[in-house]
Amino acid sequence: MTSPDPSPGSSSTAPTAPTAPGSTTSDAAATDADADADATTVPRVTELWVAPERHAPMEPRRRVEVEAGAGVVGDRWHGTRHRHVTLQSADALLEAAEALGAPVPASATRRTVTVSHGVVPTDPGARLRVGGVELEVVRVAAPCALMERSMGPGGAAALRRRGGSVLRALSSGPIAVGDPVEGLLTAPTPSRGAGPARRPDPSTP
User: Fold this and answer.
1) Which of 88, 69, 160, 159 is closest to 128 using CA atoms?
2) pLDDT higher for 143 or 94?
3) Cα separation of 123 and 192, whole Å?
4) 69-73, 82-86, 137-141, 148-152: least confident range
5) pTM of the entire structure?
6) What gap in Å lies between CA 136 and CA 22, rounded to an integer?
């Protein structure tokens, strides 16, 4: 005697989700893993700050416009010879906070762009790309006396060799929070890791 057919919905085998032609479930999982890895390994812009004039309070932005040969529109340094963008790493801010013994907010350093992680190159001529904007390192962004006010006593010393770089804009375009950053180093270069302090940047942030 033949057993009756199972009733609808009573099958012991669960339906399998369809996969795209030529792909497998493992391929999809690998793609998701690559996306997660990219989100954590690619440095990205986390904060943008501008000041309309020198010594003015820093103002947060979600997006700024950069003009080649001129800098960030609306910032105090726009139109200067080559101090167009200043860029620092959140990794360096954590090191500065440890040296200072107090938090170091990104705005306290008066830098334009803060990135999530990585080491900002300080050798003149090094190239970076932030979003779609190409930048070139001019010099290290050394701390000045204003850091003692914005960060507290010892702020300038804590930021020494951790203040990022001054860059000139080689191309025009927007920079927005979340943009990827290319050209950062993965570890301090030997010439920058130790040694005598560099001459402070004579210009005031």
Assistant:
1) 88
2) 94
3) 9
4) 148-152
5) 0.70
6) 44
User: From CA 18, how far away is CA 95, in angstroms rounded?
Assistant: 49
d(CA 200, CA 141): 8
Q: Where are the beta strands (DSSP E) in the chain?
A: 45-50, 59-61, 63-67, 71-72, 85-89, 113-115, 127-130, 133-140, 165-169, 173-176, 181-182
Highest mean pLDDT among 8-12, 14-18, 115-119: 115-119
C-alpha pair distances (Å), 110 with each of 27, 119, 165, 173, 179: 45, 18, 12, 22, 20
Cβ atoms of residues 137 and 128 within 8 Å: yes
Helix (H, G, I), strand (E, B) or coil at 177: coil
Tally of CB atoms within 10 A around 87: 25
DSSP for 65-109, please give it.
EEETTTEETTSTTTTSSS--EEEEEHHHHHHHHHHHTS---GGGG
**What backbone phi and psi angles, to 5 degrees, belong to 40?**
-100, -20
Q: Which of 58, 117, 123 is nearest to 92 (CA)?
A: 117
Of residues 27 and 97, more confidently modeled: 97
> Alpha-carbon distance 111 to 151, whole Å?
13
CA distances from 16 to 13, 28, 91, 176 (A): 9, 14, 45, 42
The first and second tokens of residue 116, run together, are 């999530």
